[in-house]
Amino acid sequence: MKMTKENFIHEFKKRLGERYALDVKDAAPIELYQTLVAVVKSGYSDIWRKTWKSYVKNDQKQVYYFSIEFLPGRLLKSNLLNMGWYDVVEAGLKDMGLDLDQISETEVDMALGNGGLGRLASCFMDSLASEGLPGNGNGIRYKYGLFKQKFVDGYQIELPNEWLTDGNNWSVARTSKAVDVLMGGQVHLHDNGKYYEVTYEGADLIKAVPYDTGIVGYHNDHVNTMRLWDAQIPASEEINYPTIEDRRRVEDLTSVLYPDDSNYEGRILRLKQEYFFTSAGIQSIIRHYKKYDRPLTEISDHIAIHINDTHPAMCVAEFMRILLDEEHLDWDVAWKQTVQTMSYTNHTIMAEALEKWPVDMLATVQPRILQIIEEIDRRYVEELTGKKDEDFIERTRIIKDGMVKMAHLAIIGSHSTNGVAKLHTELLENDVLHDFYELYPERFNNKTNGIAIRRWLQVANPTLSKTIDQTIGTKWRFDSKELHQLAKYDDDQALLEKIGAAKRFNKVRLAKVIKEQTGIEVSPDALFDVQIKRLHAYKRQLLNLLHIVKLYLDLKEDPNSQQVPRVFIFGAKAAPSYHYAKSIIKCINEVANLVNNDPTIEGKLKVVFLENYGVSLAEKIIPAADVSEQISTATKEASGTSNMKLMLNGALTVATLDGANIEIKDYVGDDNIFIFGLTKDEVLAYETNHQYRAADYYENDPVLHRILDAFVDGTIPNIEVEGHEIYDSLLRANDEYFVLRDFAGYVATQERVSQTYLDQAKWNKMCLLNIANAGYFSADDTVEKYATDIWQIKPNVEVQKGAIDDVYPF
Ligand SMILES: *Cc1c(COP(=O)(O)O)cnc(C)c1O
Question: Any idea which residues bear N6-(pyridoxal phosphate)lysine here (predicted)?
Answer without folding.
Answer: 645
